[in-house]
Design goal:
This protein is α/β, with parallel strands linked by helices. The radius of gyration is 20 Å and the shape is flat.
């Protein structure tokens, strides 16, 4: 693991948009980057994901060690099930598992996996925050002034965790005691939802179709009973993929954790939402009409919070 020396002595007092990547305290405990060749087999990639307990792998170019894209477990799942419309069977043929990982990338340039966002370690975070606000989840931090420096992955979660530990880093941008209703997120309904009795696999296919990372699971009356999210995918062990044929409401019972469903009301503060992101290990919080209601009227994600910071900074 490469040790990076903080360049800011008190990140609590520095506007997060003016910090550089290495100023983030958690940046200095980041594990060494694991990257693979584009001709690596899907089988090998899955083994790396499982052995290292990670969900994504940067991919190098064909003729160098430069990282040019990133692949995740969701991308691999979609490739393995291919165009199969039968959600009760998973295509796990030996032929596909031996395909090169670059085949998984496909030609959909709108997907994050097609390209790799990069951040110069000597630049401030503002441009990267704007990329995160647009839906990018990770950025490769590179020191272009020191080619021998070790690149590392910066994530949305890293930003949210820094804000949680150093609230002063956004104090001049927004009051974290503001309610999500006042910020308008109760009028930001989810794009789509899934039924409790439809298969988890069909739900994940819907995530890909709508280009979202999470959806609420609702019963026949439209009440919230759970959620289906990319971060809840089973491990890279192919044996666990069979769980995806279960109805959504049964599938979520097999999650490794028993964390509570991330919910809020219009009166919930932004501070509480940020806390829930981290304590409930989620990228989004569903907003209900009230504590007693089961109706979802809005959603606030990490991208939304980061986007709010960027918009307030611009005004």
């Amino acid at each position: 693991m490469t040790t990076r020396i903080p360049t800011t002595s008190s990140p609590n007092n520095v506007d997060i948009t003016e910090l550089k990547p290495d100023d983030l305290v958690l940046a200095h405990s980041k594990p060494s980057l694991i990257a693979i060749s584009p001709v690596t087999s899907i089988r090998t990639a899955l083994q790396l994901l499982q052995n290292n307990k990670i969900t994504s792998l940067p991919i190098c170019s064909h003729d160098s060690t430069q990282v040019v894209s990133i692949i995740n477990l969701f991308d691999i799942l979609l490739y393995l099930v291919g165009g199969d419309d039968n959600d009760n069977q998973l295509n796990k043929t030996t032929q596909k598992l031996d395909d090169s990982i670059e085949n998984v990338l496909g030609l959909d340039t709108d997907r994050e996996s097609y390209w790799m966002h990069k951040t110069d370690s000597q630049d401030t975070l503002f441009d990267t925050l704007r990329a995160f606000a647009s839906g990018v989840h990770r950025s490769l931090v590179v020191n272009y002034g020191n080619p021998k420096g070790s690149p590392w992955l910066l994530s949305q979660t890293d930003i949210i965790r820094h804000i949680y530990h150093y609230p002063g880093s956004i104090a001049n941008i927004i009051d974290v005691n503001t309610s999500v209703g006042h910020l308008g997120f109760d009028k930001n309904p989810p794009l789509v939802s899934v039924k409790a009795n439809q298969s988890a696999l069909s739900g994940y296919k819907l995530l890909a179709e709508k280009n979202v990372s999470g959806v609420p699971i609702v019963d026949d009356d439209g009440n919230l009973v759970g959620d289906l999210c990319l971060e809840d995918l089973p491990s890279a062990n192919l044996d666990t993929f069979e769980l995806l044929t279960l109805p959504c409401v049964e599938y979520i019972q097999h999650r490794p954790s028993t964390l509570a469903l991330p919910v809020a009301t219009p009166n919930t503060t932004l501070q509480n939402v940020i806390e829930n992101f981290l304590k409930l290990d989620t990228h989004r919080v569903w907003i209900k009409q009230s504590e007693e209601s089961g109706k979802v009227i809005g959603v606030i994600s990490m991208s939304d919070v980061i986007g709010l910071l960027c918009s307030k900074k611009n005004t």
